[in-house]
Specification:
With 245 residues, the chain is an all-beta fold. It contains no helices and 18 strands. The chain is globular and about 55 Å long. It comes from Sphingomonas aerolata. This is Fimbrial chaperone protein. Pfam families: PapD_N. Keywords: Signal.
Length: 245
Amino acid sequence: MKILRILTAIVSPLLLLPGTSRAAAVIIWPVDPKIAATERATALWIENKGNEPITMQVRTLRWSQGPQGDLYDDQDEIVASPPIAVIPAGERQMIRVLRRERPAVAANDQTGPGERSYRLLIDEIPTANAPNASRLPAAELAVQMRYSVPLFTYAGSVTAAKPELTATVERSGSGRTLAIRNTGMLHARLVDIRTADDKKTSLASGLAGYVLAGQTMRWPVPDGVPDTSQIIANVNGADQRLAAR
C-alpha cells in the first residue's frame, strides 16, 4: 500500500470566500460530506464561477494519522464518479462519491467503531495537461489548485458516539508541543485552540485540524504559556475545555 504525504498546498473549502482572487473561481460544497450507514453514496458539487472552462480531477484517499501527522493511503473502498470533469464557465458539476460496499469494522481500525475517514483531493488541472491527465501518475500530475475535503463514512449508528479529548504539553529537543489525544469514537474538528486564562493566548487560530478517533495530533506551544494551562477549543462546532492529562 502506498502512503502519500501531500506536499503541495492544500486549500480548505472553508477559505473559498468572496475576495479570494484565484480560489474564488471554484466553489465546492458540502465542506463536510458524509455517507451514513444506510447510504451508499453522497453528492459533491463543484461550481465554476470563472470565465473559462476548468478541468477538475477528484481522487479519494484513505486518511489516517500517525506520529508525524496526517497520512494518506491509496484505497478502493470509495470512488468518485466521474473522476475527471470539464466544467464550463458559470456551470456546476455533481460528483457522486460512492461506497463500493459497506465495510466491516476491524478490531484494530484506527478510526472509531463504524467511522472511517477519507480525504477527497480535488485538483484543478491546467488546460494543457487535461487531455493526458488520466494517464499521468498521481505524483506527477501538474496541479493548478488543490482542494482537500474530509469525508467520513459509517457502518453503524453513531448516535451516542463523540470525541473524548485530553490535552498534554510535551517537551522535546525542538521545544514544547500541545498533544491532543482523542480516545472517543468520533473524530474531532478543532477550531481556535487557545488558553483558558484571561490572556486567551492562541495556539492555533482558525481551523486547526482534525484529531481522528484513537489518534493524537500536536501543535507548537508559544513561549510564555505555562505547561499547566487549561486549554479551550471549538470542537465540532461548540467550545469545549479540554481535560488535562
